[in-house]
Amino acid sequence: MSKKRNMISYIIIAAAIIFVLNYFVLPLVFETGEKQVSYDVFLSELKNDNIEEVEVVNDTIYYTLEDKETQNQGTILLPGFGSKQKDVYSTGVLDYSELHKELVSAGVKFTKVKPQEMSPLVSMLISYIIPIAIFVIFWKFLSKQMAKGGFGGNAMSFGKANAKVYVKAQTGKTFADVAGQEEAKEALKEIVDFLHNPKKYAAIGATLPKGALLVGPPGTGKTLLAQAVAGEANVPFFSISGSEFVEMFVGMGAAKVRDLFKQANEKAPCIVFIDEIDTVGKKRDNGGISGGNDEREQTLNQLLAEMDGFDGKKGVVILAATNRPDSLDKALLRPGRFDRRIPVELPDLRGREAVLRVHAKKVNISDDVNFKAIANATSGASGAELANIINEAALRAVRFGRVEVEQSDLEESVEVILAGYQRKGIVISQKEKEIIAYHEVGHALVAALQKNSAPVHKITIIPRTSGALGYTMQVDEDEKFLMTKEEAISKITTFTAGRAAEQIMFNSVTTGASNDIEQATKIARAMVTRYGMSSEFGMVAFETVNNIYLGEDTTLACSNETAALIDKEVISIISTAYSNAEKILKDNIQKLNSIARYLIERETITGDEFMTLLNL
Ligand code: ADP
Ligand code: ZN
């Protein structure tokens, strides 16, 4: 929703609330037990001598009955506050002289009250204009406070972070907290030195980059690195997320940027960290066809203006993080802005081990834990995921009443991170259990009986919260950075083997293979369109990857005819792989049977057990 519409809807809501208060709630609060009755009821009460007192205000008669038990007979006609504590009757035409006579003869106390009626204007002023004005003033005040950073946060959600000042004691991070990422640390060391002593650089006339862009997938420690730079340099750390800029009311994003830089300038030397800068810094639309992005553009322009405006020698360094560098507006990357780019990649084997060790320091961990084995089993995991694995393991240790984290805790928590928790409650029929077991053993057997595939680490048919009903874990002995064509084909063959086993054993197929099919297709497609691994096409890139951190994000560029041929080639690769898997399983049907039986009984077998069974 646009911010303008937001404001209008606030006013409408406020008006509605005031309306309800005025017409429904307040009358209830000031309820006096008055009731509207018709004239003849009044007259008959009068005739029966029940009326004690009468008051006439304008054309409304308020009357009180003598018998209090039957009191609720009058009414209130005027909407609004503080109605008379009298019963009421009203009519447009009252013959006062008639009424007067009757009242006198009935001996009723009678007063005619001069109305102190408010003019409609005043009444409207009180019931609408003043409350709305108060509301608007309050709202403006809030916005202003937020722009100043007084409250911190978006309107209506207090406490969300504004550019916060972190003094050293609060960051407390140093490069020692960041495992691996040596290149990134190296690149940031100069900035640390600059922040330590800006004058040294100024004396010689050198200007350091005002901004550096930390580029890498989520959870790789970009925020942590920025905090560590502030910690190492012993300077304040201001942080804000790009999405916070854009969630603002109209004009607020730009105001916030201005404010952030004002604060930063006052506190220089310091670090300003902008997370998810791509949310503000996205490429601007050509011609503004999509529209509605004025707010983001204003914010971006303000950011650019501030970056150009501030004195680079003063010691304000802006670090920004993103995982979509290619979507950034070019203007952001120009010299004098974010002209340094520091890659922060997913950790390799050694990096993963280092991250595990750093986080293991925070928990009680057994001395004989093999970090390398865990690092080996977590290829592709980010620093954040590894930190999570250590924490999950510690939680598990507590659940088992241990005081130390053991290898088994780590192994189980790897699986929790990769596949989710075990689903203990789910009941799977014997028939389905058999299908799942044969499917998984199919994968494992074909993996083990082919060259070029990673050793089987574990097979399990215990369902997981991720939805997996079973899985086969393969773990490479060493970290692999390249994939040969043979390995790619082996992988596809292994993926098809689950379905092949189902077909051979039960002569029918299930939905259980859907993820395998997806994975196999992905590899086969990439072989043809990106890796030049198809003899049909050779080294031609039909597909380009738009963002190396978001693997799915690719663009296919080829003629329709070629696209059809690519599909054909992909189909052929997969069907050949399937035939091979089928052949391997048929040739080893006894093994398939015996290992599957064993798995059904045990539900989980380790890689070693599997190899023993295979070599029996
Ligand atoms: P990003 O900003 O890249 O998304 P974060 O810096 O927020 O990632 O990382 C999240 C958490 O993951 C960190 O607080 C830290 O606990 C852990 N982490 C990530 N990378 C590392 C690393 N290289 N060394 C130690 N811990 C890490
Ligand atoms: Zn499968």
Structure explained in plain terms:
By secondary structure, the protein is α/β, with parallel strands linked by helices. The protein has four domains: 32-113, Signal recognition particle alu RNA binding heterodimer, srp9/1 (2-Layer Sandwich); 164-343, P-loop containing nucleotide triphosphate hydrolases (Rossmann fold, 3-Layer(aba) Sandwich); 349-419, Helicase, Ruva Protein, domain 3 (Orthogonal Bundle); 430-614, Methane Monooxygenase Hydroxylase, Chain G, domain 1, CATH 1.20.58.760. 50% of the residues lie in helices and 13% in strands. It has helices spanning 3-29, 39-47, 96-106, 120-148, 168-171, 182-196, 198-204, 222-233, 242-246, 252-267, 278-281, 294-309, 349-360, 371-376, 383-399, 407-419, 430-449, 485-506, 514-529, 560-587, 589-602, 607-614, and strands spanning 36-37, 51-57, 60-65, 87-90, 109-113, 153-154, 157-158, 164-166, 211-215, 237-241, 270-275, 316-322, 338-343, 456-460, 471-474, 543-545, 554-556, 604-606. Strands 8-10-11-12-9-13 form a six-stranded mixed β-sheet. A hairpin with an 8-residue loop joins β16 and β17 (554-556). α10 (252-267) packs parallel to α12 (294-309), α15 (383-399) crosses α16 (407-419) and α17 (430-449) packs antiparallel against α18 (485-506). It is extended and about 120 Å long. The model is unreliable at 68-93, 148-163, 165-169 and 287-291 (pLDDT under 50). Zinc ion (ZN) binds at residues 439, 443, 498, 513, 516.
